[in-house]
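May I ask for an example protein's residues together with how it folds?

___
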Amino acid sequence: MKPTIGFAGVGRMGANMARRLHSQGFAVTAVYDSYRPGAESLAEEIGAKACATLAEVTAAADVIITVVTDDAAQLAIFAESGDSLLAGARGKTFINCATLTPATHVEVERRANAAGARSLEACMASSINQALAGTLYLMCGGDKAVFDSVQDVLVPLSDDGKLLRYIGTTGQAAQLKALVNMVMNINTAGLAEGLGLADSLGLDLNTVMEVFSQTGANSRVLVTDGEDMVNRDHACFFSAAHAAKDSGIALALGAGQGLNLPLAAATTAQYDRMVTAGLGDLDKSGIAELTFAGRGPNS
């Protein structure tokens, strides 16, 4: 029998994950979001309850999936007093999907275990379209027994399990996710500089992208972001603000190991510039607004 599912955090990622599980025959019984109209709309769509409190989500589901923005939000929904997912959590399982610092995942597991619950990190290396299609790349960390126990939930989210990986103990999946986003963001920043320079040189950008795709300049972000950079189409799939946060997590991990990561530092600085300039809600491809002549917040 499939477990009942609750969601804490139903922005675009969380909502599409809920839709996916609902479409696969799971009873998504409860949803919660700090933006209540979003939760109410989703609840009506999939037949769930839009909960007014976090404790209601835990009471209504066997497995609770959390998809929030950052460390502060994650620790708040797992507060050790007041309204919290931990209220009445004994016997429940939490699957935590946000990109957080490894230390926060470790702390959440500690709090969950103290409440008699179980916790698993399931870091996502995908976006909103993959969430709805059930083709998320999921990197999981925590007790292997917990991972094994929620396969029925994870497999339909990850292309029938083909994109599901067990990485290791709690925090290790978050470490790897930080590295994934660090390298992705560096590639994105590099592509923006290459295309911006090509544009200034008067080169045909379609030809430039074709040559890039057939040479050592090729990358996954050329496929996902190249045309958007040229066309200034920065509809958000992964925001610049999140890129800044995630690059900062990786940079801090490097500092903790005594490593100098100049490319990661430069990329973080560029995304921080976007946030400061009020461009943080643009897609990460919007970094091209800082590298093409005549663009930018003051153009």
